[in-house]
Amino acid sequence: MEMAITHDQFQLIENRTKTIEVRLNDAKRRQLRPGQGLAERLHFRP
After folding, report:
1. Quick check: 46 pLDDT over 50?
2. pLDDT, tens digit, for every residue of 22-38?
């Protein structure tokens, strides 16, 4: 499964400073199962 993430959010995850995720129960994330691979794409904002 592929999901998009913005650069600023990726930086928070990478630095282990991201404390909340508001998209926990959207349609795409409900399809995730334990052990399933996940590919992240970066979206850079101008």
Report:
1. no
2. 777 788 778 878 877 76
Rounded (5°) CA angle 4-20-10:
35
Instruction: Indicate whether this model's pTM tops 0.85.
Output: no
The number of domains in the chain is 1
Domain carrying residue 12: 2-43
Q: What are phi and psi of 13, to 5 degrees?
A: -65, -45
Residue 23 and residue 29 in contact, taking contact as beta carbons nearer than 8 Å:
yes
Quote the mean pLDDT of the chain: 76
Measured CA to CA, the distance from residue 19 to residue 9 in angstroms comes to 11
Nearest to 14 by CA among 22, 23, 1, 5: 5
